[in-house]
Amino acid sequence: MSLQVIVSVGSMNNIISFNKVSGILVCEAGCILENLISFLDNQGFIMPLDLGAKGSCQIGGNVSTNAGGLRLVRYGSLHGNVLGVEAVLANGDVLDMLGTLRKDNTGYDLKHLFIGSEGSLGIVTKVSILTPPKLSSVNIAFLACKDYSSCQKLLMEAKRKLGEILSAFEFLDNQAMNLVLHHLDGVRNPLPASMHSFYVLIETTGSDESYDREKLEAFLLSSMEGGLISDGVLAQDINQASSFWRIREGVPEALMKAGAVYKYDLSLPVEKMYNLVDDMRVRLGNLAKVVGFGHLGDGNLHLNISAPQYDDTILEQIEPYVYEWTFKHRGSISAEHGLGLMKANKIHYSKSPETVQIMASIKKLLDPNGILNPYKVLPH
Amino acid sequence: MSLQVIVSVGSMNNIISFNKVSGILVCEAGCILENLISFLDNQGFIMPLDLGAKGSCQIGGNVSTNAGGLRLVRYGSLHGNVLGVEAVLANGDVLDMLGTLRKDNTGYDLKHLFIGSEGSLGIVTKVSILTPPKLSSVNIAFLACKDYSSCQKLLMEAKRKLGEILSAFEFLDNQAMNLVLHHLDGVRNPLPASMHSFYVLIETTGSDESYDREKLEAFLLSSMEGGLISDGVLAQDINQASSFWRIREGVPEALMKAGAVYKYDLSLPVEKMYNLVDDMRVRLGNLAKVVGFGHLGDGNLHLNISAPQYDDTILEQIEPYVYEWTFKHRGSISAEHGLGLMKANKIHYSKSPETVQIMASIKKLLDPNGILNPYKVLPH
């Protein structure tokens, strides 16, 4: 019998400092993300990450899992935004890497080992993070595209024409839309005239309401004229904006309500991303519904397969095919959710044996007895 | 007698791929930064880093030293922008971490160990990097402030009011300005009416020429009215813009021409940064000129001390005082230039003993015989 200990940092939930000149926040690991968002809102700043689970997730966990989320396309990953961490090692040593500097080239930047290593090298106890100023003008458009190629071209155009104000570029296919409309109360299709193959949510964030809106309107007009979008609507108020986000963020919930679901969180080259959804539909035929949605702007596909109940026949059609497909296209089998227990043995689909070997050596160096988050991340 | 080998990757200078949808560039380590900038310019993209040495420095070196430079305030550090590297280890193993994905949470993100470790853990041979779209509208203002406190307030205001278009916030003090005016041919003061205590260069980059210019003009007007700036001028054409940058970028060259120079590249909390310059002036009196300039937007001070010739009396007044001062304020003794040979033994001013110990263990793990860039980075 082996004893297992669960460590909670939930009561370490103090904000240690906030500097309004630099925008640098230092806090304890147990701070709930949403509380940090509220705190910063009062100071005129925002967190560089936002995700559906913000009401319960803690910043220490966000950092330990290198959480991605909705603002990554604009503000980049936590490896760029986290300036420092304090971590407790397996032997009890407290490692003070809690810098509050944007630039620091003194030796190896060890904090990156603790960002995304899922607690397996140390327990993150404090975090220092660079927060951007809050910009007052947010606009959201909900659009329809006739095919995936149009979604891609729209992304390229949005990057160029919306440039510095683009803050989200999300997509869902019509299977995902159908599920949301069918299973979530009070959700309706903002483009009800006909069903389209793909839906795209574009958000802009800037500092000038009238100018930003004009810019987005001009972009939508030219995209409509160029045939990239078939239909579209711009949110007229904050309630409509929330209802657009509700559709995109509601997909996982709708899938849960629809029955059994096999979930894959993949990074793939944008131009090939949706081919996997098509291929999977061919493989599964009538056995299950294949749903594709996610953060198109980051090349991050959430491939979800929905069936009345869990069934080994279905699973055999999906795995290892989905991993092999991802490997073939040099993708990542875990874009933003981490490997955890279920995918630890599948790391070789995304990382070379030499790289995994060095990860194991570093694990052994920092946690020789393997007591931190055992059986996770690295292959057994 | 010990044999030393110098490895050049200068002939590994091919661009391997560029993806116009994602903006991801993959190239060999020997590519000259300026060549990459030109290549991307033709594709409608830019490199997320730019520095004075671009005509000769190589991307592999930029990554290995985690180069900062002029665009960091907008696009962040290389830890955020570099998506992958290939590195050759001390034992000859080629470590393939050359991902081209914005998100990849499969195991420890080892590439960060090679960013900024100055070649001491492996030789970077290929790089994959996320490049932002080129935005067509660039505006530059050259401003005067009466004191350092005004420079700081101006930075806060610029972050909020210029928001998403702010792309550089640089400063120099009047000592630096005097040196540039005195030692560099063809440079003249854009604000000649009187000498001011501080000069600030603000650059904006956006996608709409007339709007961006209006925005910057409105910002300058309100800052002038609020007393934050005493004088200012907006570049009217590309030549004038270059002449403004020439002043800021010309400071190191002017210092070289002025005689001996003691150079320190420090990160400090913005609000305390200039106190060090003042303190140093008090310590040195008439012995030497103390010059402060740098990337104010990043909290990065270049403290340079200029004297007719090198003199141990001067050095004793500077060191270890400057390091102790930086330590006391939790700054970095090497913000963007790395520790190299000269500062390897000074790492403890910026990093805790436990952290340095782990760095040494990782060095031993990856380079047990200490053959890669010996005597550098870590204390002897």
TrEMBL record, chains A, B:
Residue span(s) of domain FAD-binding PCMH-type: 1-134
UniProt keyword annotations, A-Z: FAD, Flavoprotein, Oxidoreductase
One GO MF term: (R)-2-hydroxyglutarate dehydrogenase activity
EC code: 1.1.99.39
InterPro entries: FAD-bd_oxidored_4_C, FAD-bd_PCMH, FAD-bd_PCMH-like_sf, FAD-bd_PCMH_sub2, FAD-linked_Oxase-like_C, FAD-oxidored/transferase_4, Oxid_FAD_bind_N, Vanillyl_alc_oxidase_C-sub2
GO cellular component: mitochondrion
Enzyme kind, highest EC tier: oxidoreductase
Gene3D superfamilies documented for this protein: 3.30.465.10, 3.30.70.2190, 3.30.70.2740, Vanillyl-alcohol Oxidase, Chain A, domain 4
Cofactor(s) in the UniProt record: FAD
Pfam families referenced in this protein's UniProt entry, alphabetically: FAD-oxidase_C, FAD_binding_4
Keyword flag Flavoprotein: yes
SUPFAM superfamilies recorded: FAD-binding/transporter-associated domain-like (SSF56176), FAD-linked oxidases, C-terminal domain (SSF55103)
Family the UniProt entry places it in: Belongs to the FAD-binding oxidoreductase/transferase type 4 family.
Record's protein name: D-2-hydroxyglutarate dehydrogenase
Species whose genome carries this gene: Durio zibethinus (Durian)
